[in-house]
Specification:
This protein has 400 residues and is of the alpha+beta class. The chain has eleven helices and eleven strands. The strands form two sheets. Strands 3, 4, 5, 6, 7, 8 and 9 form a seven-stranded mixed sheet that branches. It has a four-stranded antiparallel sheet with strand order 2-10-1-11. Helix 2 runs antiparallel to helix 8 and helix 8 runs parallel beside helix 11.
């Protein structure tokens, strides 16, 4: 079917098509990078903590007032809490996954290590020996920490040989070709012997990078984070009575931030969720504006070409031919814009990479954004194109 007259008319007045092509290209550049950013946030919020989230309650414990025998009080706390129906295990730790108080230090092959011998700075959990049981961690190899590994809080800074456990990711980074068991590494200048490797434990803080780079050390903790593992069907009852129970045992302290792990995750990722909603809203708005722009351009073109369309109908073009032409014309404009927009997407990503240290854009997100734009553009063309196909051949005889 010959559409030469209509096509030449487009070339004589290319402004509208050019503006729409620019709009589509810009939308692709922005949308593909936003899709990538959204996916990064979603993956971040979906990270496995390594903990049985649905069974764990965490709280902060702070002492005040007169001196208290905290070690004795911690033993009383554990004994009392374990008597509550549904409570399986109780532990004190310096921090919790996704919680605050993120203690980090360089982990080195040598005591006086330089940058090359200290490749990573993991977070370290200083917790009692029941911590793994309370959180429900999985042992990969070796053993869990026990009472023989315990040190007191006062001894934490003394350069003495101690033991530790590594996350599986960290163990493989330091000893990729052999088992990490029995090896020595230096944490903050202190020599520690690796006695076990656990599958996973997320670092404290939602913004922490290298999320699986964690260490466990044994310490007789008496305050900080209190972690309690509870039967899932009793978790709300224990949570409700926890503060009253703890203060009843000792009123020289406060119990704050009583949350389940799921609630802690929701708090930690609140900004990420808000960012996802914002980014998706912006993308939706961009796509809507692009769709309206395409529909407006095609409607304007149809209005200006009615006599040409009528002429083509009078010469034998069917409604299907007219419809196919406008769909094809829009496809050609959109395809050209998407090619240009793909280059713009990577240029924008390069800027974001250098300015905000974002990851390099993957090709799949450009494809997703391009496919979305192509579908929306073709859909937006459909209604005006249908109107064009209904133009009567008789209009060619009118002097307008």
């Amino acid at each position: 079917m010959a559409f030469g007259p209509i096509f030449r008319s487009t070339l004589r007045n290319p402004t509208g098509a050019l503006l729409i092509a620019i709009q589509i290209a810009l939308t692709l550049a922005i949308a593909s990078n936003m899709f990538y950013m959204v996916n990064e946030r979603v993956e971040k919020m979906s990270r496995d903590t390594g903990v049985v989230n649905e069974e764990v309650i965490a709280a902060r414990v702070f002492y005040f007032g007169k001196a208290v025998d905290k070690a004795a009080q911690a033993d009383i706390d554990r004994k009392t809490l374990l008597e509550i129906p549904g409570v399986k295990s109780v532990s004190y730790s310096n921090s919790m996954p996704l919680g605050g108080n993120n203690n980090t230090s360089s982990l080195c092959f040598e005591q006086e290590g330089d940058e090359d011998s200290c490749p990573h700075s993991p977070s370290y959990y200083r917790s009692d020996v029941n911590f793994h049981e309370t959180l429900g961690l999985d042992l990969v190899e070796g053993r869990w920490l026990n009472d023989s590994d315990n040190v007191t809080t006062d001894a934490i800074s003394i350069a003495e040989t101690r033991t530790m456990m590594l996350s599986e990711v960290l163990a493989k980074l330091y000893f990729p070709e052999e088992s990490a068991l029995g090896k020595q590494l230096y944490l903050g200048g202190r020599e520690l012997t690796i006695v076990g490797v656990y599958r996973q434990l997320l670092r404290p803080g939602a913004r922490a990078t290298e999320a699986d780079h964690t260490i466990l050390t044994a310490e007789r903790r008496t305050s900080g984070y209190l972690a309690i593992r509870v039967d899932q069907d009793r978790i709300e009852q224990v949570k409700e009575k926890l503060e009253a129970t703890m203060v009843g045992l000792n009123d020289q302290r406060v119990i704050t931030e009583i949350e389940t792990m799921d609630e802690m995750a929701a708090d930690a990722y609140r900004r990420d969720k808000a960012m996802v909603v914002l980014l998706l809203s912006v993308v939706a708005l961009l796509l809507l504006v692009t769709a309206l722009g395409v529909a407006g351009l095609v409607s304007f073109t149809v209005a200006n070409r009615k006599k040409q369309i009528g002429t083509r109908r009078a010469l034998g073009a069917s409604k299907r031919d007219i419809l196919a032409y406008f769909i094809s014309e829009n496809f050609a404009i959109t395809a050209l814009a998407l090619i240009v927009g793909s280059g713009m997407a990577y240029a924008l990503n390069q800027y974001l990479l250098q300015t905000y240290e974002l990851a390099r854009l993957e090709l799949v997100y450009v494809f997703v954004a391009a496919a979305s734009l192509l579908f929306i553009s073709q859909f937006a063309t459909l209604l005006p194109a249908l109107k064009a196909s209904k133009v009567s051949p008789a209009i060619a005889t009118r002097t307008v």
